[in-house]
Amino acid sequence: MTDDTPPIKRILSGLPGDELYTLEQPEPGKDYLDLMEQRRWAFWNSKPDDEKSHYQGYDVTPELLKNSLARQVHAELAAIHAPNLSLQVCPWQEAKLWYARQMNEEGRHFRLVRDHLLELGGTWDDDYAPDFAEWNQLFSLFMNLDNHFFLDKRKEVIARAAVLNFGIEGWDHLYVQPLFLEKIRDVDPTLFEIYDEVIMPDETIHYQIGQFILGEYATTTELQRVGVEYLDRQLIAHHRVNAAFKRYHEEKDEAAGAGAGQDHADAGH
Ligand SMILES: [Fe+2]
Ligand SMILES: [Fe+2]
C-alpha cells in the first residue's frame, strides 16, 4: 500500500467477513461467498422479525394489495433494466449470457404481476414511481451504485451483482419469499400460484447468478472489497425500507381515513 492509497471506508463492521475490507491476498471464490453469506445472515439476524421483509402490505386491504402490486410491477421493470446496465458493460461472456436470461425472466414476472393487478381493478402506466422514499433509495442504489465506478466496469458489475442478485434477490430467496407465500396463500390464491410456480423458481436462478459472478469474477482483493462494501450498502438500504413500512402504512391509513371522511361528506349532499 502506498501513501497516496485512499483509506478504506468500512460501511458496516463487527460482522463476519470484516476482514474482506483489508485482505492482502484474495480469498478463494468459495470462501469469499461463505463469508459474504455469513455476513448477510448475521446482519439480518440482528434485526427484529418485522424488519426482515419488504413484502409487507399485501394482506391488509384490497386497496393496499393493489398499491403493493403496483410497486412490485415497477420492481420487475427495474429488475430488467439493472441487469441490462451490467450486460452492456460486462467484460465476462458467461455473465452476459446469465444477464440476458435474467432480463427475459424479469419481463415475464412484469407481465404476470401487471396482468394480475389489472384483473384486480388496479391500473398501471409508465409514469408510476413508488411513493416511498426509502424504497426509491434502495432501487437507485442498484441502478446507480451511489454514483461510483464510472471507469472500472468490473467494479460496476461486481457491485451491482452484490446489491441486486446476491443482496436483494438472495435474501428474497432464502428468507422473504417463503414467508410471503404463506402470507398470501389465502389472501390471493392466484398471486400465490404466480409466485410459487414461476417467480420463486426464477428468483433462485437470479440469486445463483449473484453467487456465480461474485465467486467467479471477484478474484482480486479490490474486487472482493467492492463486493463486501456494496453488500453492506444494500443491507443498510434494504433494512431501512423494511423498517419504514410501519410509518408508510400509517400514512396510507391516515390518507384513506381522510378520503373516507370526504366521501362520506360528499354522499351527504
Ligand atoms: Fe422478478
Ligand atoms: Fe429476479
TrEMBL record:
Gene3D superfamilies cross-referenced by the UniProt entry:
Ribonucleotide Reductase, subunit A
- Cite the InterPro entries for this sequence: Ferritin-like_SF, RNR-like
Sorted alphabetically, which CDD domains does this protein's record hold? Ferritin_like
The terms under GO molecular function for this entry are: oxidoreductase activity
What this protein is called in its record is Uncharacterized protein
Organism from which the protein derives: Pseudonocardia sulfidoxydans NBRC 16205
